[in-house]
Design goal:
The protein is an alpha+beta fold. It is built from 6 helices and 17 strands. The protein has one domain: Nitrilase/N-carbamoyl-D-aminoacid amidohydrolase. The strands form 4 sheets. Strands 5-4-3-2-1-17 form a 6-stranded mixed sheet. Helix 3 links the parallel strand 9 and strand 10.
């Protein structure tokens, strides 16, 4: 067996950045007490989800990859021998910002970072105003406890991203997330949207033979009720844990990375991939040449 204990922290956020960070650290202490070895925080965990509007004042919330928030997390990781996925609003240079995640190993060192590739632009999610798409591609991180891939929120809808980090060796894909329902939407739509969100990520787990961990926030912010529902799926897509939609939680769940061998030999998708046939996927859309 290769057991790894995963800590999920699902919280609401306030307008007070320092308060959000302090509450998160308190929750991380609880996760460590429960035995967590890898902790994933939610997308933009230190701030409210400011992308509901386009307002230049929110750029003041950003900080560099080695800024004070990450330094606090490095200290915590080293003291508690825990790996932490730390999503931040990154200021890369003057006028250049990313939606990023820093991965800190269990000795407090920064293993690297991932910048969000897929940037949405929808009512209530005006992220293109704030975030520049990544220019570093996809990455995996070989931590003390296992090899992980990190993708961020809107990335979770794209099977290509999950496939790439899996082919790079990820055993677990973490999706720090901030997603929810429009306040005026009805219950039927809400259920369909959440189920679609969870279903596609479970499909990534199945198609790639990996564990998937999605960590979302809760609470109501100006135009969105964040739907929580953080979960862990195994490589057959079975739900090992699912958080409630409207409660803050700290949960620790043990998974066995050696089981990946079992799942991938039962359903050997990696063996049977026909990579020589996949060139068309590089097109934006495949037009019907008969009609051109």
């Amino acid at each position: 067996m290769h057991p790894v204990r995963i800590g999920l922290i699902q919280l609401s956020c306030t307008a007070d950045k320092d308060y959000n960070i302090a509450r998160t650290i308190d929750s991380m202490k609880i996760a460590v007490e429960k035995g967590a070895q890898i902790i994933c925080l939610q997308e933009l965990f230190a701030t409210p989800y400011f992308c509901h509007t386009e307002d230049h004042k929110y750029f003041d919330l950003a900080e560099p990859l080695n800024g004070p928030t990450v330094k606090k997390m490095q200290d915590f990781a080293k003291i508690n021998e825990v790996v932490i996925v730390v999503p931040i609003f990154e200021q890369r240079a003057r006028g250049l910002f990313h939606n990023s995640a820093v991965v800190i190993d269990a000795d407090g060192t920064i293993l690297g970072y991932y910048r969000k590739n897929h940037i949405p632009d929808d009512p209530g999610f005006y992220e293109k105003f704030y975030f520049t798409p990544a220019d570093t591609g996809y990455r995996v991180f070989r931590t003390r406890y296992g090899t992980i891939g990190v993708l961020i929120c809107w990335d979770q809808w794209f099977p290509e991203a999950a496939r790439i980090v899996s082919l790079m060796g990820a055993e677990i894909i973490f999706y720090p997330t901030a997603i929810g329902w429009e306040l005026e939407s009805n219950e039927k739509i809400n259920i369909e949207q959440y189920n679609a969100w969870q279903l596609i990520q479970r499909a990534h787990a199945v198609a790639n033979g990996v564990y998937v961990v999605a960590v979302n926030r809760v609470g109501t912010e100006p135009v969105t009720k964040f739907w929580g529902g953080s979960f862990v799926a195994n490589p057959f897509g079975s739900i090992l844990f699912q958080a409630p939609h409207d409660e803050e939680i700290v949960n620790v769940l043990e998974i066995d990375l050696d089981q990946i061998q079992y799942y991938r030999t039962i359903w050997p998708f990696l063996r049977d991939r026909r990579i020589e046939t996949y060139q068309p996927i590089l097109k934006r859309y495949i037009d019907d040449e008969r009609n051109s």
